[in-house]
User: What shape does this take?
Amino acid sequence: MPHLTSAQGAAATGLRTGLGVPGFAHPLVAPAEWAELTRPGAPVDWVVLNVADGPGARPDTHCLEAAGRLRNAGVRVLGHLDTLHGARAFGDLVSDAQRYLDWYRVDGFLLDRCPAERSALPEIRRTVTTLRAMRDGAHVVLGHGTHPYPGYAENADQLVTFDGPWSDYRWSQVAEWTADYPPDRFCHFVHGVPGPHLDEALRIARWQGAATIWFTDRTDRTDRGGLGDPWETMPGYWDTLVSRIGTGVSE
Assistant: This one.
Protein backbone atom coordinates (compact mmCIF):
# COMPACT_ATOMS: atom_id res chain seq x y z
CA MET A 1 0.00 0.00 0.00
CA PRO A 2 1.17 3.60 -0.56
CA HIS A 3 2.37 5.84 2.24
CA LEU A 4 -0.66 7.70 3.52
CA THR A 5 -1.33 10.30 6.18
CA SER A 6 -4.01 10.06 8.84
CA ALA A 7 -5.20 13.59 8.08
CA GLN A 8 -6.00 12.66 4.50
CA GLY A 9 -7.67 9.44 5.58
CA ALA A 10 -9.90 11.35 7.97
CA ALA A 11 -10.76 13.88 5.29
CA ALA A 12 -11.73 11.10 2.90
CA THR A 13 -14.04 9.23 5.25
CA GLY A 14 -17.57 9.40 3.95
CA LEU A 15 -16.32 10.93 0.72
CA ARG A 16 -18.65 10.88 -2.26
CA THR A 17 -16.68 9.56 -5.18
CA GLY A 18 -17.69 10.49 -8.72
CA LEU A 19 -16.44 9.52 -12.16
CA GLY A 20 -14.56 11.84 -14.49
CA VAL A 21 -14.26 10.23 -17.90
CA PRO A 22 -11.08 11.18 -19.86
CA GLY A 23 -12.91 10.46 -23.11
CA PHE A 24 -13.87 7.55 -25.32
CA ALA A 25 -13.33 6.79 -28.98
CA HIS A 26 -15.63 8.60 -31.44
CA PRO A 27 -19.34 7.89 -30.81
CA LEU A 28 -19.54 6.04 -34.14
CA VAL A 29 -16.77 3.69 -32.98
CA ALA A 30 -17.89 3.33 -29.36
CA PRO A 31 -21.68 3.92 -29.31
CA ALA A 32 -22.31 1.51 -26.42
CA GLU A 33 -19.73 3.26 -24.24
CA TRP A 34 -21.28 6.69 -24.76
CA ALA A 35 -24.76 5.30 -24.14
CA GLU A 36 -23.70 3.68 -20.84
CA LEU A 37 -22.61 7.04 -19.42
CA THR A 38 -26.24 8.18 -19.31
CA ARG A 39 -27.40 5.12 -17.38
CA PRO A 40 -29.71 6.27 -14.54
CA GLY A 41 -27.81 6.29 -11.29
CA ALA A 42 -24.33 6.15 -12.83
CA PRO A 43 -22.17 8.53 -10.73
CA VAL A 44 -20.67 10.35 -13.73
CA ASP A 45 -19.71 13.96 -12.95
CA TRP A 46 -18.18 14.91 -16.30
CA VAL A 47 -17.01 13.50 -19.61
CA VAL A 48 -14.27 14.86 -21.88
CA LEU A 49 -15.20 15.31 -25.54
CA ASN A 50 -12.16 15.01 -27.81
CA VAL A 51 -13.37 15.07 -31.40
CA ALA A 52 -10.03 15.06 -33.25
CA ASP A 53 -7.23 16.10 -30.91
CA GLY A 54 -9.51 19.02 -30.11
CA PRO A 55 -12.83 20.25 -31.55
CA GLY A 56 -12.00 19.21 -35.12
CA ALA A 57 -12.20 21.27 -38.28
CA ARG A 58 -16.00 21.30 -38.51
CA PRO A 59 -19.02 20.36 -36.37
CA ASP A 60 -19.58 16.63 -35.96
CA THR A 61 -23.26 15.69 -35.66
CA HIS A 62 -22.51 12.40 -33.86
CA CYS A 63 -20.48 14.19 -31.19
CA LEU A 64 -23.15 16.87 -30.87
CA GLU A 65 -25.79 14.20 -30.27
CA ALA A 66 -23.62 12.40 -27.71
CA ALA A 67 -22.92 15.67 -25.87
CA GLY A 68 -26.62 16.54 -25.87
CA ARG A 69 -27.59 13.20 -24.34
CA LEU A 70 -25.04 13.65 -21.58
CA ARG A 71 -26.21 17.15 -20.72
CA ASN A 72 -29.83 15.96 -20.68
CA ALA A 73 -28.74 13.34 -18.15
CA GLY A 74 -27.16 16.01 -15.96
CA VAL A 75 -23.56 15.20 -16.88
CA ARG A 76 -21.08 17.99 -17.68
CA VAL A 77 -19.32 17.84 -21.04
CA LEU A 78 -15.77 19.21 -21.12
CA GLY A 79 -13.87 20.19 -24.24
CA HIS A 80 -10.36 18.75 -24.59
CA LEU A 81 -7.62 21.38 -24.90
CA ASP A 82 -4.03 20.14 -25.26
CA THR A 83 -1.58 22.64 -23.73
CA LEU A 84 1.45 20.64 -24.97
CA HIS A 85 3.04 21.03 -21.53
CA GLY A 86 2.77 24.80 -21.86
CA ALA A 87 4.08 25.04 -25.43
CA ARG A 88 0.69 25.62 -27.06
CA ALA A 89 0.02 29.22 -28.08
CA PHE A 90 -2.59 31.05 -26.02
CA GLY A 91 -4.48 32.10 -29.16
CA ASP A 92 -4.72 28.52 -30.40
CA LEU A 93 -6.17 27.34 -27.10
CA VAL A 94 -8.75 30.12 -27.08
CA SER A 95 -9.67 29.41 -30.71
CA ASP A 96 -10.25 25.71 -29.94
CA ALA A 97 -12.27 26.62 -26.87
CA GLN A 98 -14.52 28.92 -28.89
CA ARG A 99 -15.22 26.15 -31.41
CA TYR A 100 -16.15 23.79 -28.61
CA LEU A 101 -18.56 26.38 -27.26
CA ASP A 102 -20.06 27.25 -30.64
CA TRP A 103 -20.43 23.70 -31.92
CA TYR A 104 -20.99 21.56 -28.81
CA ARG A 105 -22.04 24.00 -26.06
CA VAL A 106 -19.57 22.45 -23.62
CA ASP A 107 -19.80 23.07 -19.89
CA GLY A 108 -16.09 23.55 -19.39
CA PHE A 109 -12.66 22.29 -20.37
CA LEU A 110 -9.91 19.82 -19.55
CA LEU A 111 -6.47 21.35 -20.13
CA ASP A 112 -4.56 18.19 -20.95
CA ARG A 113 -0.78 17.92 -20.56
CA CYS A 114 -0.93 20.98 -18.36
CA PRO A 115 2.45 22.16 -17.06
CA ALA A 116 3.07 21.72 -13.35
CA GLU A 117 5.97 24.04 -12.57
CA ARG A 118 5.63 27.39 -10.82
CA SER A 119 7.00 29.38 -13.78
CA ALA A 120 4.11 28.32 -16.03
CA LEU A 121 1.39 29.27 -13.54
CA PRO A 122 0.82 32.88 -14.76
CA GLU A 123 0.10 31.73 -18.32
CA ILE A 124 -2.25 28.96 -17.16
CA ARG A 125 -3.99 31.47 -14.89
CA ARG A 126 -4.43 33.75 -17.90
CA THR A 127 -5.90 30.89 -19.94
CA VAL A 128 -8.31 29.81 -17.20
CA THR A 129 -9.47 33.39 -16.62
CA THR A 130 -10.16 33.77 -20.34
CA LEU A 131 -12.06 30.46 -20.55
CA ARG A 132 -14.28 31.49 -17.67
CA ALA A 133 -14.96 34.83 -19.34
CA MET A 134 -15.98 32.96 -22.50
CA ARG A 135 -18.31 30.56 -20.72
CA ASP A 136 -20.00 31.64 -17.50
CA GLY A 137 -19.68 28.93 -14.86
CA ALA A 138 -17.16 26.91 -16.88
CA HIS A 139 -15.85 23.85 -15.05
CA VAL A 140 -12.08 23.83 -15.58
CA VAL A 141 -9.90 20.79 -14.92
CA LEU A 142 -6.10 21.00 -15.16
CA GLY A 143 -4.67 17.72 -16.42
CA HIS A 144 -1.21 17.76 -14.86
CA GLY A 145 -1.05 14.02 -14.26
CA THR A 146 1.19 14.70 -11.27
CA HIS A 147 1.22 16.96 -8.22
CA PRO A 148 1.86 20.49 -9.50
CA TYR A 149 3.07 23.60 -7.73
CA PRO A 150 0.36 24.24 -5.08
CA GLY A 151 -0.69 27.58 -6.57
CA TYR A 152 -2.49 25.81 -9.42
CA ALA A 153 -5.14 24.63 -6.96
CA GLU A 154 -6.37 28.22 -6.63
CA ASN A 155 -6.90 28.58 -10.37
CA ALA A 156 -9.12 25.65 -11.35
CA ASP A 157 -12.09 23.64 -10.18
CA GLN A 158 -10.11 20.40 -10.21
CA LEU A 159 -6.57 19.12 -10.75
CA VAL A 160 -5.64 15.71 -12.16
CA THR A 161 -2.80 14.79 -9.81
CA PHE A 162 -2.32 11.23 -11.06
CA ASP A 163 -2.57 9.90 -14.61
CA GLY A 164 -0.81 6.62 -15.22
CA PRO A 165 -0.62 2.87 -14.66
CA TRP A 166 -1.75 0.83 -11.68
CA SER A 167 1.82 -0.38 -11.18
CA ASP A 168 2.75 3.18 -10.18
CA TYR A 169 -0.51 4.15 -8.50
CA ARG A 170 -0.52 1.41 -5.90
CA TRP A 171 2.78 2.73 -4.49
CA SER A 172 2.07 6.41 -5.04
CA GLN A 173 2.32 9.10 -2.38
CA VAL A 174 0.15 12.16 -2.03
CA ALA A 175 1.67 15.64 -1.69
CA GLU A 176 1.19 17.02 1.81
CA TRP A 177 -0.18 20.35 0.58
CA THR A 178 -3.28 18.66 -0.86
CA ALA A 179 -4.60 18.21 2.70
CA ASP A 180 -5.35 21.95 2.69
CA TYR A 181 -8.03 21.44 0.02
CA PRO A 182 -11.25 19.43 -0.12
CA PRO A 183 -11.19 16.06 -1.95
CA ASP A 184 -13.45 17.36 -4.70
CA ARG A 185 -10.50 19.43 -5.94
CA PHE A 186 -8.55 16.33 -7.09
CA CYS A 187 -8.88 13.65 -9.79
CA HIS A 188 -7.03 10.38 -10.43
CA PHE A 189 -6.94 8.55 -13.79
CA VAL A 190 -5.50 5.03 -13.53
CA HIS A 191 -5.23 2.40 -16.26
CA GLY A 192 -4.32 -1.27 -16.02
CA VAL A 193 -6.15 -1.79 -12.71
CA PRO A 194 -6.89 -5.54 -12.45
CA GLY A 195 -10.43 -6.42 -11.40
CA PRO A 196 -9.32 -8.10 -8.14
CA HIS A 197 -7.56 -4.85 -7.13
CA LEU A 198 -10.44 -2.46 -7.86
CA ASP A 199 -11.42 -2.10 -4.21
CA GLU A 200 -7.80 -1.43 -3.27
CA ALA A 201 -7.58 1.28 -5.93
CA LEU A 202 -10.74 2.93 -4.64
CA ARG A 203 -9.36 2.90 -1.10
CA ILE A 204 -6.15 4.56 -2.27
CA ALA A 205 -8.15 7.32 -3.95
CA ARG A 206 -10.22 7.86 -0.81
CA TRP A 207 -7.22 7.93 1.49
CA GLN A 208 -5.33 10.26 -0.81
CA GLY A 209 -8.32 12.59 -0.94
CA ALA A 210 -9.35 12.35 -4.61
CA ALA A 211 -13.11 12.60 -5.08
CA THR A 212 -13.13 12.15 -8.87
CA ILE A 213 -11.63 9.03 -10.43
CA TRP A 214 -11.51 6.93 -13.57
CA PHE A 215 -10.16 3.40 -13.24
CA THR A 216 -9.93 0.93 -16.08
CA ASP A 217 -8.45 -2.52 -16.67
CA ARG A 218 -7.49 -1.42 -20.20
CA THR A 219 -3.77 -0.84 -20.71
CA ASP A 220 -1.65 1.60 -22.69
CA ARG A 221 0.04 -0.44 -25.40
CA THR A 222 1.53 2.47 -27.35
CA ASP A 223 4.78 2.38 -25.38
CA ARG A 224 5.31 -1.19 -26.59
CA GLY A 225 4.80 -0.46 -30.27
CA GLY A 226 1.12 -1.32 -30.20
CA LEU A 227 -2.03 0.68 -30.80
CA GLY A 228 -4.65 1.66 -28.31
CA ASP A 229 -5.49 4.37 -25.83
CA PRO A 230 -6.57 2.88 -22.47
CA TRP A 231 -9.34 5.49 -22.22
CA GLU A 232 -10.98 4.66 -25.58
CA THR A 233 -13.22 1.86 -24.29
CA MET A 234 -15.28 1.11 -21.20
CA PRO A 235 -13.60 -0.76 -18.32
CA GLY A 236 -14.40 -4.46 -18.37
CA TYR A 237 -15.75 -4.12 -14.82
CA TRP A 238 -17.94 -1.08 -15.52
CA ASP A 239 -20.96 -2.54 -13.69
CA THR A 240 -18.83 -3.35 -10.66
CA LEU A 241 -17.24 0.10 -10.65
CA VAL A 242 -20.65 1.79 -10.70
CA SER A 243 -21.92 -0.40 -7.88
CA ARG A 244 -18.80 0.11 -5.75
CA ILE A 245 -18.97 3.88 -6.02
CA GLY A 246 -22.69 3.87 -5.39
CA THR A 247 -22.37 1.93 -2.15
CA GLY A 248 -18.91 3.09 -1.09
CA VAL A 249 -15.93 0.98 -0.10
CA SER A 250 -15.31 0.31 3.55
CA GLU A 251 -12.09 1.70 4.93
Q: What stands out?
A: Strands lie at 18-21, 44-49, 76-82, 108-112, 139-143, 158-165, 186-191, 212-215. The first strand starts at residue 18 and ends at 21.
